[in-house]
Request: fold
Amino acid sequence: ALSAYLVSYERRGGVEFLTLKRESPAFRADADYFIYKMGGEYWDYVTAEIRSDLIGNYYEAHAFAAERFSEVRNGRFNLPMEMSWSRRVQEYFREGELVSLQIDAWQFFGGAHGTRGVYTRNYGGPTVGRINLRHLFNHEAVSVVHNHCVNQIAQMANDLVEARQVSAMLSNSVDGWKPFSQWLFNRNGIRFWFSMYSDLPYVAGVFDISIPWSLLKQHVNESCRDLPIGKFIDSC
Reply:
């Protein structure tokens, strides 16, 4: 049962904070996350998504680590360090039923170094569920986002190898929205995260670029303007 290893350490403001800690031979897993305790089908849904993602990722990592450990014992693989997996779920923003979640990820299963990345989840209330940028904005918005990010990247490209790699990825992407798949929102605008979860090579590292709502307001699809997220953007 989940209660065997999920330990509650704090309850506050409709949110219950939890931790996962597991250790087995040559493998260590830990995660800090939370679930919503406000009641109702919608919050049950968001909580289920958080738990499903985190626990599912843990079991996949555990199975992979067990396979690697078996290879080590049979002499087919040399493991220089203990394998590890971790997740940190953060509530980046919440207003009413609008929710933006950030998940910091780390894992090491051998090799020169571990991999780190950021992925996200955004929710627009019971009538929307998870927010999709393709549906929220018209086709012109992706060009606005692309140009803004390219300009921001140009300012840091001399210092960051990662920035040059992202710039190349944006230029070569066939699917315009795909490089911007990991994003967060608040009253200032959208914050895009670039890492292995946005199709960057895992060695490219992690960094973010923000874009204000003022550049995107006019590109909200008419079908979304009366939804909670549309009204929220209009009010910012």
